[in-house]
Amino acid sequence: MPEGPEVESVRRELLILQGQPISQIKFTPLSQKYPKYQDKEHDFLPFSGQKVVDIHRYNKFLVWEFEKEPVILNHLGMSGCWTMINTLKEVEEVSTHPKVIVKMKHPPHAIFDDCRNFGQFRIFPSIEEVKKYPPIKKIGIDGLLDPFPLEEFLNRLAEKRFQQKQIGDLLMDARLVSGIGNIYKAETLFKAKLHPERVVSTLTEDETVLLGKSISTILLRALNDKGSSFDARYRLPSGEGGKAQRWHKVYQRIKEPCTECGSKIEKIVQNNRSTYYCPVCQK
Ligand SMILES: [Zn+2]
To answer: For residue 261, how many C-alpha atoms fall within 13 Å in the half-sphere facing its CB?
Structure first.
């Protein structure tokens, strides 16, 4: 599943559409098999002629803003992706599960490929309404903020509701910090030398500071490398892949030697999500 750095990398490439007018938002024949896309093309006709003013990101949601409201809320889901094309003939060549085609007045055009069908592409009345949408309303700190608001992180981490949580579980909770999924959770905890099962209330002050700094270092490094393309599913609208998988120290490296101490990387399951860690380096 794309995490914060991947979604932000996609957003930045989609901004090639900024200032450009839309010709029509089309739904493919394939999309019509799924209720969430059925008979929606008519609802999207008001976007024809509208210029893309901006594309915002809230955690893993993208919000497309136009000259006039409404806006479009877009989520990549498990494996959704955007691809830029110059002619509509290319749709079948570059996309296996095209659902939505944002046809621009001038190329490039954008195809939304919602491969496993967990994605979203729907109309919201305004950005204000998007901000009231529960999964967005609850978002805590954006982990990709640069500089990272360390004081705010420490204050949030000290909240009573988080004290009895295991840190590996809590890092996945967007109410604390958004943008961290399974990959960057494991890499952050390795960098912070914290065992994923450590309970928040047992962390020392130094450990909490190192944790906050590690979150920021890992997420920004991943963003700089345009995300992780370990499963070949994630790719950017340009067709390029991310490079962050090259420096993963623990994620999906079970039984391989730790780069720091040589011990074998282990895996546990927390809240139904696997976590990779070094049993020696992480306390
Ligand atoms: Zn180690």
So the answer is: 12
In a domain, 270, yes or no: yes
Distance 257 CA to ligand 1 centre (A): 8
Tens digit of each residue's pLDDT (9 = 90 or more) over 45-90: 999 999 999 999 999 999 999 999 999 999 999 889 999 999 999 9
Q: Please indicate, yes or no, whether residues 145 and 127 belong to a single structural domain of this protein.
A: no
Catalytically active residues are: 2-3, 60, 273
Is the pLDDT at 255 greater than 90, yes or no? yes
Is residue 34 located within the same domain as residue 104?
A: yes
Question: 233: domain CATH number?
Answer: 1.10.8.50
CA of 211 to the centre of ligand 1 (A): 17
The average confidence (pLDDT) of the chain is 96
Distance in Å, CA 173 to ligand 1 centroid:
26
Final residue before a domain boundary, out of 98, 122, 137? 137
